[in-house]
Amino acid sequence: MLNSIYGIKPQDLSSFIAEHFPAYRARQLLDWIYDKLVFDPEEMSNLPKDFKQWLTDSFDFSLPQILALDLSKDGTKKFLLKLSDGKRIECVIIPEGKKNTLCLSSQTGCARGCSFCATGTMGPGRNLLPHEIMQQVLIASKEVCPERITNIVFMGMGEPMDNLDNVLETLLLLQDEQGLSFSPRRTTISTCGVLPGITKLANSKVKVKLAVSLNSAIDKVRDELMKVNIAFPLEPLKRALKYFNSQNPFRITFEYILIPEVNMDDAAIQALKRFTSDLAAKINFIPFNPVASLPYRSPTDAEVEDFMARAASLPQAITLRRSRGRDIHGACGQLATKTTKQT
Ligand code: SF4
User: Fold this and answer.
1) How many helices (H) and strands (E) does the chain have?
2) CA distance 263 to 307
3) In CATH, 3-60 is 3.40.50.1970
4) Structure pTM?
5) 157 CA to middle of ligand 1, Å?
6) Topology match between the domains 3-60 and 65-328
7) Which end of the chain is less congested by CB atoms within 10 angstroms, N or C?
8) What is the 3 state secondary structure string of 30-63?
9) Catalytic amino acids?
10) Confidence of residue 339 (pLDDT cuts 50, 70, 90)
11) Whose CA is nearest to atom 5 of ligand 1?
12) Topology of 65-328 in CATH?
């Protein structure tokens, strides 16, 4: 089986091609793939026949099959993709003004089983390889063309820290100057709080933003919401985040899903204040998105307003983030390879 061309670092690809063809041929190829977003060598009109043939014989240029593309009334688009082994994943494009944010999957399911998350109900999946993560970027880039994907968040299916080696490799692919040259400050990895991964990411020196799905700063409540908290409770989590702060230039983002009767009372806000006050961080509050199989309800607008008024006493920057794509099950915590429409 041939190696996927999308999993090879552009710089390495250039060196390899230079062993067989003039160096400018590599630049032409990379321009077709990463700038013009053309993925079939036959369509790369300025490449000579022998080079095209060599490329086809040497690399796999195929992309996952798009099984469905759902469009939300708010402009969010959700792809259902079929990988080469038949496994299915989802990724979501969220347009907002001049921004196009791509929410990527890093696994085909998730072993972490957070109680508010549809992906968690799927159970463990396999790790995605770097080229399978890059393929999501390329498919999404083609979809928004002539605009660009401006931001990438690893917040789709899977826990990125459980597939960290491949995620780190993908970051290097994304940031390669001969490829997409994607800015680290526009890339965010989200974790439910897998401590060894946070420390390893800090030590890797690969620049990227970190988001932590926190949802409660009270161990007892967080244990209920996220079983990862039993293995990695709040105190060691905080130590790991302080270490991350010391090694990485970007503020940490805390994601906090608002669930009535669970994590919206005054005690929750006081605990959040204690946990976050000495970290370089900001906090995004996200009203819970309904998932039929889960036992929680969404807060009303009045409940959200009341919570945000009380949370204004927190020392960090706080934002209320309304999830997008709810009508196509493309919002936070709703990805579970179910679609509303087939292409
Ligand atoms: S929130 Fe993230 S870590 Fe938790 S179950 Fe869902 S995909 Fe997995």
Assistant:
1) 11, 12
2) 10
3) no
4) 0.92
5) 7
6) no
7) N
8) HHHHHHCCCCCHHHCCCCCHHHHHHHHHHEECCC
9) 90, 332
10) very low
11) 120
12) TIM Barrel (3.20.20)
Between CA 25 and CA 47 the distance in angstroms is: 7
Domain ranges of the chain: 3-60, 65-328
Average pLDDT value for residue range 229-243: 97
Q: Which band of pLDDT confidence, cut at 50, 70 and 90, is reported for residue 322?
A: confident
Q: Which backbone phi and psi does 319 adopt, to 5 degrees?
A: -135, 140
Closest to 103 measured CA to CA, from 111, 91, 112? 91
Q: By percentage, how much of the chain surpasses pLDDT 90? A: 84
Summarize the chain as % helix, strand, coil (round to 5).
40, 20, 40
According to the model, what pLDDT value does residue 338 have? 58
Residue 107 CA: nearest ligand 1 atom is: 7
Paired tokens of 70: 């759902």
The pLDDT tens digits for 100-125 are 999 999 999 999 988 888 887 888 88
Query: Directed axis angle between helix 195-204 and helix 234-247, to 10°?
Result: 10
